[in-house]
Write a structure and sequence with these properties.
This protein is an all-beta fold and 112 residues long. It has no helices and 11 strands.
């Protein structure tokens, strides 16, 4: 069955960096659009970043503004989100997603 298993995240000070990872299995990863989506307390889900199957068609939420990078490793069926210059408003639960499948969620907390 489809599995998206996330790792990474945690607590970081403003201006710091974190890297999220997502291990995918149970589907044809090489053609799947992969997304990172977040949900902050009291807010709706918002798209953080997406990447096409070939590593093309990369898109970011407007709030990213060059701070985050999405990437994928086809050999190992992994997708990553490198987050730099983190702000307190980036605090949220982050999810790896493809079509209707979701990872378990990873908490990112940006606080001094």
């Amino acid at each position: 069955q489809v599995q998206l298993v996330q790792s990474g995240g945690g607590l970081v000070q403003p201006g710091g960096s974190l890297r999220l990872s997502c291990a995918a299995s149970g589907f044809t990863f090489s053609i799947a659009v992969m997304n990172w989506v977040r949900r902050a307390p009291g807010k709706e889900h918002e798209l953080v970043a997406s990447i096409g199957g070939a590593g093309d068609n990369v898109n970011y939420g407007d709030f990213v503004k060059g701070r985050f990078t999405i990437s994928r490793d086809k050999a190992n069926n992994m997708v990553f989100l490198q987050m730099n210059k983190l702000k307190p408003e980036d605090t949220a639960l982050y999810y790896c997603n493809t079509v209707s499948y979701w990872g378990q969620g990873t908490q990112v907390t940006v606080s001094s």
